[in-house]
Amino acid sequence: MKCLSSTYMIRTLAMSVATHIKCRGGTYPRSSIQRLSVPDHKISWTVEYPEYNPPYYTAASIQGQPWADLEIGDPNFKPKWNSQDGTVNRESYMGPYKVVNDVPLNPVGRTGVQGRGVLGRWGPNHAADPIVTRWKRNETGDIQYDENNKPILQFVTIKRRDTDEWALPGGMVDPGEKVAATAVREFREEATSSLTMSENEKKAWQEKFQKFFERGDEVYRGYVDDPRNTDNAWMETVAYNFHDENDSVVGTLKLHAGDDAVGVQWLDITPNLNLYASHKDIVKEVVKRKIL
Ligand code: RP5
Questions:
Q1: What is the pTM of this model?
Q2: 42-87, pLDDT tens digit by residue?
């Protein structure tokens, strides 16, 4: 696992940055907090919005958690914004973010709520997402085509326990963990039964799939339009595509929903896909590279 990142093909991103669609308006997740309404033209901090005074919300459930920051102003909390801060990466893939009165500002703009919400870190909260794909085939193994005569891609998706939406099986980067390793770990935890595997089963899994999961292709690195984002805390991710051209490896994967999921399946990638946060944009990027 330690040499994963060096074997990854790193590609420059051509994907446009999602704006605030899922993290604007309505009720903040797992709370009764109503986001202040932010019209499209007032999302950017560069546009004057003098009456902007959104509610402040940091969930009680994250306070004191070992994976969460302390409150700003706490004498024991001395973050190094826009830098690698010990084992915590406080750099944004979007470039340097502004820090106003010691509080980081969401680089995309206003969300209608201040504080951290349910996110652990002030500023960027880093995640990784695996997109495991194969071609859709019939019983005799022939690739299936859509009405435009394009081959149909399928990917592994999980149903999130918190929102009941289909999503990439990603997760948070642990302090000090390599992002590429997070993508594989999260896939195993969220989409296979790795959490309940014995040591022997883990070893067998490793032997069978290690090679396949070393060949990830980076398809996205940046901001996620996650419903949990606030003005001062937001999600960012690096997404890797693991593609099985001949269906010779992933066909033998036993899918099993992990702790944070209530379902897992192979799903056809179609134009009307509806996924959590801005995951559809990330999946579309894979289609663009593989088919269009
Ligand atoms: C999304 O949240 C990321 O793209 C990733 O899929 C996920 C990580 O958060 P948890 O699933 O750990 O809550 O923004």
A1: 0.93
A2: 999 999 999 999 999 999 999 999 999 999 999 999 999 999 999 9
Task: Quote the CA–CA distance of 18 and 223 in Å, as a whole number.
Answer: 7
The span from the CA of 123 to the CA of 241, in Å, is 26
Ligand 1 site, residue 127, Cβ cutoff 6 A = yes
Radius of gyration (C-alpha) of the chain in whole angstroms = 20
Residue ranges per structural domain of the chain: 6-290
Nearest partner of 37 among 20, 50, 54, judged by Cα: 54
237 close to ligand 1 (CB < 6 Angstrom): yes
Q: Could you give the dihedral angle defined by the CA atoms of residues 42, 28, 169 and 127, in that order, rounded to the nearest 10 degrees?
A: 60
For range 30-53, the mean pLDDT: 97
- Hey, which residues does 85 pair with through a beta bridge? 88
The residues, ordered by sequence, that sit 6+ positions from 199 with a Cβ below 8 Å of its Cβ are: none
Please provide the distance, in angstroms rounded to a whole number, between the alpha carbons at the two ends of the chain: 32
pLDDT bracket for residue 18 (50, 70, 90)? low
Strand, helix or coil for residue 232? coil
By most ligand atoms within 8 Å of CB, the mutation choice from 168, 177, 190, 220 for ligand 1 is 168
What type of residue is 57? Y
CA–CA separation, 98 vs 80, rounded Å?
Answer: 13
Closest to 218 (Cα-Cα) out of 269, 178, 273 = 178
3-state secondary structure of 7: helix
Find how far residue 245's CA is from the centre of its chain. Answer: 24
Q: Which atom of ligand 1 is nearest to the CA of 170?
A: 6
Per CATH, which fold does 6-290 belong to? Answer: Nucleoside Triphosphate Pyrophosphohydrolase (3.90.79)
- Which has more confidence, 213 or 201? 213
Q: Could you say which DSSP state residue 91 is in?
A: -
Half-sphere CA count of 134, side-chain side, radius 13 A: 21
Confidence of residue 220 (pLDDT cuts 50, 70, 90): very high
